[in-house]
Design a protein that fits this description.
alpha+beta, Nuclear Transport Factor 2, Chain: A, six-stranded mixed sheet, globular
Length: 123
C-alpha cells in the first residue's frame, strides 16, 4: 500500500510546532518530520542548511525570547509549494512580528527549501 501524502496543514503545524517545543528532542522530532537533512533555510537574517542548523536558530530564538510563541496557518498550497503566514508573540511586551514563509516540498512531503519574509505589513 502506498504511503498517504501528508496534508499541508499538518506540515505547517509540525514545522511551527518545532519553534514552540520545550525540549531539543521534541524540536528535532518535529523538524525531522517536516524537513530533509539538507533543507535550505533563508531569511533576511541569513541562510543555513540542515536540521542541525535550524535547531540552533530555534535555540538562539528561545534563549533571546524564552516566553516567545509562534503561530502559523496554511495560506495556499499547490504543485509542491506551501505558503504559510506566521506571527511571533515575543512575550516581553513588544508588538508581534508577522511574516510569510514559502516552502518547497520534496517527493517525501518534507521541505527542501524554506524562504522567510518578514516583517510584512498588516493589522
Amino acid at each position: 500500500m502506498a504511503k498517504k501524502p501528508t496534508r499541508p496543514e499538518e506540515i505547517v503545524a509540525r514545522f511551527v510546532g518545532a519553534w514552540n517545543a520545550e525540549t531539543l528532542g521534541e524540536r528535532r522530532r518535529l523538524l525531522e518530520s517536516t524537513c530533509n537533512q539538507q533543507t535550505h533555510f533563508a531569511s533576511a537574517y541569513g541562510e543555513h542548511t540542515g536540521i542541525d542548523a535550524q535547531l540552533e536558530a530555534i535555540a538562539s530564538f528561545r534563549r533571546q525570547f524564552p516566553r516567545g510563541n509562534f503561530s502559523a496557518s496554511l495560506l495556499k498550497e499547490h504543485h509542491g509549494w506551501i505558503l504559510m503566514g506566521w506571527t511571533i508573540h515575543f512575550g516581553d511586551g513588544r508588538p508581534p512580528l508577522r511574516g510569510v514563509d514559502v516552502g518547497a516540498l520534496g517527493q517525501n512531503d518534507r521541505f527542501v527549501r524554506v524562504i522567510s519574509f518578514s516583517p510584512i505589513p498588516g493589522p
